[in-house]
Amino acid sequence: MDDRILVLSQLSQMASAILAGIFGGLAFDIYQKICYGSGKRRLKAIAYLKGDALFAVSLISAWLIFWFTCTDGSLRLFVFVWLALGFGLYFLALRKSLHLLLRQIIRLLRLARAMLRPAPGAQPKRPHRKRPPLTAEKLMDDSARLVVKLEHQAAGVSRSARTKLKAAAANAQHKSREQAAQMAKQSREQLHSLAQWKREKANWLRQKISNPWRRFFIRKRSEKERKEL
To answer: Are residues 153 and 88 in the same domain?
Structure first.
């Protein structure tokens, strides 16, 4: 007899836990529908809440009447277990919201596990390679390289000017001499101005680099940056 009461008490505790979980999911679903749902969904949730509250009140009142009228303790526990399980099955069968809520929680857990787990063929990420700091000496070296590049471009412009003049002279056979001379003059002036601009820029950069005071300040600045690094 004692073993039977112990088993029934354990079953009643399990049924109470199931019932508490069902009530918690139901309360969360109704709260979400009332607070964040549209007008129809809100009214429907309020109607569900009223119907479930009436059902719960009637069930609890019936259980209290049975509790005070029945004197057998094992029978009380037995009836309580089956009432709790029936109440839970009622919510699981007639109320799909709890089922959908559990499915959503399981889906979120699977998604989080898939995000934390690396892909089967994925390689580990390489550490980000930091660029070296930009110092004054590096800027000076870049300026010197730019001077050499501009000088080469100026020489290339002069060579292309001679090539274009030869092509203009070859095409002048079908045109008048004045038009050919004017075209040659315009092309010569444009290319000469471009080469002159590149030479002036190269000279300006060379003077800027070769200035002793500028070299002194650049050296001091680079030493200060090196100490800070």
So the answer is: no
CA separation, residue 64 to residues 75, 134, 186 (Å): 14, 83, 111
What does the alpha-carbon distance between residue 99 and residue 91 come to, in Å, rounded to a whole number? 9
Domain end marker among 81, 116, 151: 116
The set of long-range contacts for 178-186, using a CB threshold of 8 Å and a minimum separation of 24, is: none
| Tokens of residue 5, six digits | 């009461």
Q: Who contacts 106 (Cβ-Cβ below 8 Å, separation ≥6)?
A: none
Separation of alpha carbons 220 and 226, rounded Å: 10
170: closest CA among 157, 158, 161, 180?
180
pTM value is 0.23
In tens, the pLDDT along 60-95 reads: 666 666 666 666 666 666 666 666 666 666 665 555
First CA to last CA distance, the chain:
83
Report the Cα 163 to chain-centroid distance in Å: 56
Residue 190 counted as domain residue = yes
The rounded distance, in Å, linking the Cα atoms of 25 and 38 is 20
